[in-house]
Amino acid sequence: MTVKDITQILEDFAPLAFAEDFDNVGLLVGNANTKVSGVLVTLDTLENVIDEAIAKNCNLIVSFHPIVFGGLKKITGKNYVERVVIKAIKNDIAIYSNHTALDNARHGVNAKISEMLGLTNTKILIPQKSTIKKLTTYVPTDSLEDVKNALFKAGAGEIGNYSECSFSVEGNGSYRANENANPTKGSIGTNHIERETMLTCVFGKNNESAIIKSLQSSHPYEEVAFDIQSIENTNPYIGIGMIGELENKVTETEFLTSLKLKMNAKLVRHSNFLNKPIKKVAVLGGSGSFAIGAAKAAGADVFVTADLKYHQFYEAENQIVLADIGHFETEQFTKNLLVDYLTKKIPNFAIHLSESITNPINYF
């Protein structure tokens, strides 16, 4: 398998189109056409991770966090980022990152946290906007089923737990072909009226190029009339953070004790207790202060996240318990998630879970 083959499998799970605009995701180092000897999955790519990849004969590192985040104007080895890039290139090791694409994936980072905490009835905390597009095209009625099936195969018409969704209206299409045309139906220089069907279906923005390619290859006309619109409908299956429920209510102390144990946290920084039972839990891996308002609006009893600053704990406002367990701690099981996924997809391939310690924070 090539680097491209494996990254495509990863992008089926966490499409890069759903990554945040500020992020730097995808293949960061290496050639997409390189044959892969083995894959090492890690949370961060550091020099010791490169050494581990070499020792395990892995020439592709799948790293949740991107080692290259901002632009690199020089690569001289003066800092850890440049040293990692140099070492990877010297040893022909490719580096791929999916970061916020995996944060926003339905079964990604926050689904894993929810699983670790035993949450049920989970849903996305902050659905991502502008993820859905709508295709409208016009097809000769006798070719409708062929075009529909081709579009469905490319991913059109999928809405949550439903697939092959579309809407059709019949009418008459008309056109006049000039001397340079090669019309499928009708004759050059004459007006032609054809019984056509207006076909409409939605699709995820990550599938746009595949949808257009499928439409143009399956449609019988030389010139295919279609338009694509971004729609504002909220997609409840794509977005950041997650909210769910514990099987049974617990006290605040019981919840934080369990949280610390299940997430291997050294400590939990939290806002004031409200002396109320915990049932509804919101989670967001990594830096999640921006979602405090969303967690409160969703009626969460507690919000588990990381990197909260001093004044942000005030935002609890006696409505919710904020629990900060640390950045690494919220995301540490992400590499297990990716290893499990890749192992299921390519069971006879060498997929390794990194044993390197990459948490930069120590506790005394």
Secondary-structure map with pairings?
Elements: H1 3-13, E1 26-29, E2 39-42, H2 47-55, E3 60-63, H3 80-90, E4 94-97, H4 99-103, H5 109-117, E5 120-127, E6 132-140, H6 144-153, E7 167-176, E8 191-204, H7 208-218, E9 226-231, E10 239-250, H8 252-262, E11 269-270, E12 278-287, H9 292-297, E13 302-306, E14 321-324, H10 327-331, H11 334-345, E15 351-353
Parallel strand pairs: 2-3, 2-15, 3-4, 12-13, 13-14
Antiparallel strand pairs: 1-4, 5-10, 6-8, 6-9, 7-8, 10-12, 11-14
Helix pairs in contact: 1-11, 6-7
InterPro entries: DUF34/NIF3, DUF34/NIF3_bac, DUF34/NIF3_sf, N-reg_PII/ATP_PRibTrfase_C
GO molecular function: metal ion binding
Binding site for a divalent metal cation: 65, 103, 327, 331
Tertiary shape = globular
The unreliable regions are none
What separation lies between the terminal Cα atoms?
Answer: 45 Å
- Overall structural class, as computed from helix and strand content, comes to alpha/beta
The CATH architecture category of the largest domain equals 3-Layer(aba) Sandwich
CATH topology of the largest domain: Udp-n-acetylmuramoylalanyl-d-glutamate--2,6- Diaminopimelate Ligase, Chain: A, domain 1
Please tell me how large the radius of gyration is. 25 Å
Textual characterization of the structure:
The structure is a single chain. With 364 residues, the chain is of the alpha/beta class. The protein folds into three domains: 3-103 and 333-353, 3-Layer(aba) Sandwich (Udp-n-acetylmuramoylalanyl-d-glutamate--2,6- Diaminopimelate Ligase, Chain: A, domain 1); 109-127 and 239-325, 3-Layer(aba) Sandwich (Udp-n-acetylmuramoylalanyl-d-glutamate--2,6- Diaminopimelate Ligase, Chain: A, domain 1), CATH 3.40.1390; 132-231, 2-Layer Sandwich (Alpha-Beta Plaits), CATH 3.30.70.120. The protein is 27% helix and 27% strand. The chain is built from eleven helices and 15 strands. The chain has helices spanning 3-13, 47-55, 80-90, 99-103, 109-117, 144-153, 208-218, 252-262, 292-297, 327-331, 334-345; strands at 26-29, 39-42, 60-63, 94-97, 120-127, 132-140, 167-176, 191-204, 226-231, 239-250, 269-270, 278-287, 302-306, 321-324, 351-353. It has a six-stranded mixed beta sheet. Strands 1-4-3-2-15 form a five-stranded mixed beta sheet, with helices on both faces. The chain has a four-stranded antiparallel beta sheet with strand order 7-8-6-9. Helix 9 (292-297) links the parallel strand 12 (278-287) and strand 13 (302-306). Helix 1 packs across helix 11 and helix 6 packs antiparallel against helix 7 (208-218). The longest helix has 12 residues, at 334-345. The protein is globular. 37% of the residues are buried. This is GTP cyclohydrolase 1 type 2 homolog. Pfam families: DUF34_NIF3 (PF01784).
